[in-house]
From TrEMBL:
Native source organism of the sequence: Ferrimicrobium acidiphilum
Database matches in PANTHER family: BLR3518 PROTEIN (PTHR37691:SF1)
SUPFAM superfamilies linked: DsrEFH-like
Protein name stated in the entry: DsrE family protein
Species lineage: Bacteria, Bacillati, Actinomycetota, Acidimicrobiia, Acidimicrobiales
InterPro entries tied to this protein: DsrEFH-like, Sulphur_relay_DsrE/F-like
Domain of life from the UniProt record: Bacteria
Length: 121
């Protein structure tokens, strides 16, 4: 099912800051559901704090799902402050991850630009 051209594009920014691996799985599942409903939807996942572990190659159990979603245009970003505080290097992240200066700044910019804010737990 695709979004009709007369409707505005669905755009969302999702905050993920939990170490809960079941929550990670649910967030990815919800994104997949959205893309089934509207394949043109724009989704950005902002990872901060322990949520950064989702997008670390050595700490996630969801690498297949992450790669599939990234290939479909889902944007995954990491908070540089969180990386610095936890001594995580960029090389530990998947290559499709973008680093932003701060999660809070990225969330505010996304909302200012009209994206719906979601924090799925």
């Amino acid at each position: 099912m695709s979004n009709e051209s007369s409707e505005p594009k669905l755009e969302a920014v999702i905050q993920l800051d939990t170490p809960d691996q079941e929550a990670w799985k649910q967030v990815l599942h919800q994104i997949e559901n959205l893309l089934v409903e509207d394949e043109s939807a724009s989704v950005e996942v902002v990872c901060s704090g322990r949520g950064v572990d989702l997008i670390r190659r050595d700490t996630t159990h969801l690498s297949i799902e992450l790669n599939k979603l990234a290939a479909r245009g889902v944007s995954f970003v990491a908070c540089n402050n969180s990386l610095h505080q936890r001594s995580i290097s960029e090389s530990e992240l998947f290559p499709f991850v973008t680093i932003v200066p701060s999660a809070i700044g990225e969330l505010i910019r996304a909302q200012r630009d009209g994206k719906a804010y979601l924090k799925l737990t």
